[in-house]
Amino acid sequence: MEMVASPKKIQRIHPKKFALWMAMLSMIMLFSALTSAYIVQKASSDWLQFPLPQQFFYSTAVILSCSIVLHVAYKAFVDKNYQLYKLLLSLGFGLAVSFVALQYSGWLILNEMGVFVYTNQSSSFFVLLVGVHALHVLGGIAALLISWIFAMRKNTMEWSQKGQLRLELTCTYWHFVDVLWLYLLGFLWLQQ
Amino acid sequence: MADINVLEKEVPQTNYDGHHDDHHGDKFQSSFIDRYIFSQDHKTIAKQFLITGMIWAIIGSAMSIIFRLQLGFPDSDMSWLQPLLGGWIQINPTTGLGSIDPQFYYALVTMHGTILVFFVLTAGLSGTFSNLLIPLQCGARDMASPMLNMLSYWFFFLAGAVLFISLFLNTGPFSGGWTGYPPLSGLPQASDGSKAGATLWILSLVFFVVSVLLGGINYITTVINMRTKGMHMFRLPLTIWAFLVTAILALLSFPVLASGFFMLTFDRVLGTSFFLNEIFVAGEVLTTRVGGSAILFQHLFWFLGHPEVYIIILPAMGLVSEVLSIHCRKPVFGYKAMVFSILAIGVLSFLVWAHHMYMTGMNPFIANIFILFTLIIAVPSAVKVFNWIATIWGGNLRINSASLFAIGFVSMFISGGLTGIFLGNAAIDIQQHDTYFVVAHFHIVMGVAAFFGMFAGIYHWFPRMYGRFMNETLGKIHFWGSMIGAYAIFGPMHYLGMAGVPRRYYSFENFDAFAGFASMNQFITIAAIATFFCQILFVINFFYSIYKGKKQTEMNPWGATSIEWTAPVNCGHGNWEGDIPEVHRWPYDFGRHGRDFIPQTEPLADGEIDGGH
Amino acid sequence: MGFTIGALCTILLSVFIVQIGKARELASIVRNDPAEQDEINKFQAGLGMIFMVVFLVACVWSFYHYIPTSLGWGSNIAASVHGPEIDYLFNLTLFFCFIVFVLTHIALFWFVWKFRGKQGKVGLYWAHNEMLEMVWMIIPSVVMTFLVIGGLQAWNNIMLDFPEDEGYYSVVLPDEGNEKQYIEIEATGSQFEWYIRYSGRDGKIGTKYFTQINDKNQLGQTWSDEKNMDDFIASEIVLPVNKQVRVRITSRDVLHNFYIREMRVKMDAVPGMPTYFHFTPTVTTDSMRRRLKNVPEWQVPHRNDNTKQRWEVFQYELACAELCGKGHYGMRKIVKIVSEEEYLEWLDKQEGGSLVENVDSTNANSVSYSFEKGSVKSKYFSYFKDGEKEFNPVVDKIDNIEHLVENKLLVAMCVDQMSTLRSSSEEGSDEFNTAENALAELKPLLKAARLYTVDQVHDSYDNLNKARGIVKAAVVEKNTVDPVTTVPVDTTAL
Fold first, then answer.
1. Torsion angle, CA of C158/C160/C164/C169, rounded to 10 degrees?
2. Which of A174, B40, B131, B160 sits at 20 to 30 Å (Cα–Cα) from B183?
């Protein structure tokens, strides 16, 4: 926090970036509440374990790759390397959608194993955590879609301050849901 | 007066540190829809919040009048309400007397609580004043993201629309209390009011959570990141400190409520048992619904619920500090202490939630911790009260509607706050839990004190919003009517609570111990009706004054020091024509050096020390 | 019609007030008098002072007027051992809070008057004072500390449950002065009535599980658990005065709350999670009635029966204190606090013919039995396994209970006989004295008979013979009454 009113320019984080961090903070609170409830319930009720299907590890790899791809895409945009940027953005978008698809398929495998949302507290919480995360990923996909549309249209494809900010925010958010997924996966895996 | 079409002009939009804002003037916002419906101007959004909040306040209070009629005059004929309430008025076949259906009574009580706590006192209070004052008092053209701000209002509107629809359902709106505890709320078969009404209630509140979060993000970012040059944190008016901490509380606690609602929805729709365990209801054994805990919901709910009440009261406190100081022509006493009290209240508010749950069978040892923190949180609140009273000492008090309500706030906060001490002490709560003592306590602090803070703010900042003044005579009648009326309504309720009369009872006829208070209940109902009509006076005053109120002729009618009054009357989007003012001192230089007031924009003289240090 | 007139009057009144408001504002603009604000300040500050006086006087007056219904006063004394602790804390807090309330309100309104705005005056630039801040931070903290310490003590005292590993256990009637014994009853909330279950002769409440709930088994009692066999569901709560009681509180469906006002008892009922509250009633219903007889509010005719005054038909009441649906306000059960003797008598009545259960058994592998109302004879089926009868310890236990009840009734009859003899003879005569002495010996035997556990069934036979012996001796002495030999079962008493 600056203390002196001096004429020189103060370095500050851009307001919209700060706002995004605030939003992510609120999402962290949401998932903290859910994981706390998980811990409390696990301790006090009939808790049946079930193994995590491989799908969820594949989807982890996918979302990690997505983050990396988007990061490189961002770099490409800043360097005004438009071909690479468009390619990587499309790839990233595809990976993002695959993540959600893989999550869903993982859930279907669990169903085949006889694990449904209402089977036990453990499965209910599993759906809750994965589902609410997926909901936030869908939000990220919407943001990515907007970036992708801007990238594909001729008159908005070129570099601009505003465009860079938008892309940066989108990527930051993606890294966030990625890290969030890693946390959730680690949490679920450790609880077993 | 400044040209209201300042929107058409290209206004320089730089913030002091040089970079251009993203929205360049309002060439894109000149249509009616852009200016008044989907406005991204924080001042317009503030008005949207305010007026929507007022409409909901009327609806919510009218509901309370209806159920108070049932409580005060249980044997009277209510069939005259049939045109409005239709089948919800049951006609007794033998006596021919109409009375409210008990199911609907509980729906009214539930809606009253939900509407007033969330729509009026959270959206209508924080939403209005945070939006109005944060950019203006911090020295910013608008919020960090005007688009998200606009969405914040429209999600609130959507939440309201959904709840409004639920009022017309066949099975009725949700009737499980504004706290919505499962299993009652989690099992549609447990009550008619837990069917479609509960689904819509949850949906409405989820939209509401989105609205609050969108708003909160903006408020925090703008205060931290977009203050004008020279506006150090300790030069911010107390309103801004209050709104900042409120927004942080909201950001951290509303998601937890949302998590509880997700789980509740899963229970209702997907057959899970987060909150259900060993249930036999409506003649049916729910064999698969085991393993959950109804108390878990209460933890999640009150983790929001307690910060929520501070989200309600802190903005009111901020408004009152400002109004008192300006009209007393004196600095707020103990500015730093006030700031630290706000911060302390903010932090402590996260540590006391289970004092709403003393009687749930929790481990008594854990309750000890909550008792301790609950009684600790009384200390910063007391400090604030003493500081307000000390603010008046030595002042030159200009008494008008705004300052009257500020004074009334202090009285109400003392009265309501003191009864909180009884309830926080868990042993006393054994007897007082779920009685009218609790009802009296929270109504005085929230239903009256917070409202009074809101009124003080409306009367005081009305010129800033509409370039006119509200009528003073009506305002004073509004004040005295509300002050006397509110004490007349909620004072006696303490005695009902001390006598052990439980809350949320449709009728007291079944119990000898509770049936002896007929005249007291009548008195309360009559006082409630009278006070309600005083509020109608306020509403008339408000809307009339928008068009026909005494015009504001000078930019700073109250002689305030903060910079919201340096923007032109009826300024457009962007607030200041030309550069944003630079700030050199704290906002409480009243009576300093013998001068009536020194605005924040005036540079410090040689050797003069800023009052905030 | 009345509504229309009322609405019209209100609208007219509102319009009238609004017009006054407009007129005054116009007049003020026209006058343009800068000193006018001074007048307004004086008038409003004056109103404030008047309000302060009226308000504080009203508070004090209302306190005196309504104090009889307040905690620990008048008719609202606590009727339990822990109750006065709560009342004391409440009144202590009230004392401190009232002082703060009065002082701050006087300061607030008086300052408003004293420092009302006057033209030409400038406000005092007095922005902070560290010393004052410390003072008014420390004083509330100190007062809070007292309240917290007292509060924590009371809370922990009242709420900590009896620890089973420290030798606490439930019985039918706790011995005098034995702090580790308590009566246990179970209260189950449902939409919209309370089920109150007593533990019966063994002093233990049997297990239950919700999947077993059906029309004939409202609580889902597990019949294979022998502790259930003597349990009964009562239509009201009857408890002996000055004995520890522990309530096990559960719910069948949604949240409820077990609340007895006078005894300061309150605890949530959560489905699937039993909660407990222990208390000791100290004032019998009769005593309470005598006390209320002198209270004006209770001398009025009762609202449902105006031939009786309120105090005459006073009952302690169990109410629900957690919103549970549309019948929340009607979950009432009467609670009677009686003497030890009356409690045992009541138990007698419940025990002999209370339990009528038919556990549905389509499955031949389960036990089915029933106590027929009005008789102590039980009918039971043996446990069939592959078509053979087998010894069933559960059934055996039922048999023992029957014998205990039968023996108890017989001893009770001995007591009755001697009582009849006593009341039919003249005071001071030989007959009278004989009967007195016999009764003195018989009463402890009756008490024992009422409290014998299932394992003590043989002791109960000894006890019964002893009782018979006493009666025989008394009768032989007097030679007027036939000794008790046969036992007609008096079904009307049950």
1. 10
2. B160
